[in-house]
Amino acid sequence: MSTVSPKEAEEPLILTIDIGTSSVRAALFDRLGRAVEGIEARQPHEIRTTSEGASEADPDSLLQVVFNCLDRVLVIAGHFSKRIAAVASCTFVSNILGIDKNNRAVAPLTTYADTRSAAEVPGLRADFDEGAVHNRTGCHFHPSYLPARFRWLARSQPDLFRQVARWVSIGEYLELKLFGETAVSYSVASWTGLLNRSSLSWDKTLLSGLPVQMEQLSPLTDVNIPRRGLRPEFAARWPALRDLPWFPAVGDGATANIGSGCIYSTRVALTVGTTSALRAVLTDLVEHLPSGLWCYRVDGRRSLLGGALSEGGSVFAWMKATLNLGNLSALEEALAAMEPDGHGLTVLPFLAGERAPGWAGHARATIHGLSLASTHLDILRAGLEAVAYRIALVFDLLRKALPADPQVVASGGALLSSPTWLQIMADVLSRPVFVSGVLEASGRGGALLALEALGVLPDLKAAPDFISAVLRPDTGRHGRYRQAMERQKKLYEKLIGLRD
Q1: 29, 36 contact by CB (below 8 A)
Q2: Whole-number Å distance between alpha carbons of 368 and 425
Q3: Which CATH superfamily is domain 3-252 in?
Q4: What's the pLDDT score for residue 500?
């Protein structure tokens, strides 16, 4: 079991903070990476979006949500809080906010889903050799990364841009408030598009063409180097955490892989939460990256190869709300009874632009083929299938870059809450999909990295593996889905165009 009762939890315990795109969660895990039942706190927060492509949050309000969750989980933990050995955190990435010389936020937090800087991408491609930058940093030019966002902010909001003394992520901002100083992990830095993935340093060549200085970025550190000694106000607020090691924030994509047991190149993590991703952990440096994929860092020793999509559970949620679809359990039964691609619709599910594999940040969602016979369920099913097709494109690229044909392990609340969507994934990929029994893979991954850093786990492979089920593909359905994928490809080429 991936959970354990408080009485059966084995010391030491790790307190985790998981800052996601829709909520913050604080929880306890034991030395085997099992979630301690009942000792958790969760609170939603808001990411503001606009039709112009903005995706922003108030960083101070977001930190208050984090503090509230810590308050609550420590109250629930009671005397178990004395058994906590360290604090680990993970956050959604890439995100950035600007602070002034007094460490006050003066520019809002923008997220990976902010597409307002899409018009800066052609200029970046004209000024730099994108292939060389991609191979050095692991990232394409795209509005989800900081090069485009920095140029856009400097041009569109010059007065605000000049107020910024330093640029930090939400994890760095949290650390700055708690300790008075901060650093950024190789993991989070790798999601910016500014980290040289080989030298593990800020990329000087790229920074030379951007309106920011290296001194405006935080010093780099590894995920196993903690900070101790909370500032007095927080030491008084959380005495159990006063002198504990706090590890720097890690990208939640990296911790999701670790938490779901995908720590080898023989396993690929399929995660569908608000967004989607396919990722594999590698210990050998990928010398030449396949076009269409990114390569981030888990830490100083491990790379994370894969692709992320802005579409995922957000598509399901948007359709459910916009089409006024009602109860999820009734929807699930109706969706399961439908024929694969029986609706005749073709969907490009780019509600927040496209990331992998085409990296068309300007892309927008399209539903093609609607008729008087089309129903709300047809549209929903077509949307779920469309996301699966995009994931299959990334998987085809990823498996060619791996030394062996990998297993697919699924996690993420949006996907695991829908057996029908899971089966669609298996049928589209035409391979078994192993279902992770870990409900909170990102938080667990952060805990396991902390346990490894503390020496409690000699290696991540020492942690138990939790697989709850396996879904087998239907070859007949796969053939129908492949035909639908061809329709989607043709629609993509007509409306959005090939990236290169």
Answers
A1: yes
A2: 22
A3: ATPase, nucleotide binding domain (3.30.420.40)
A4: 41
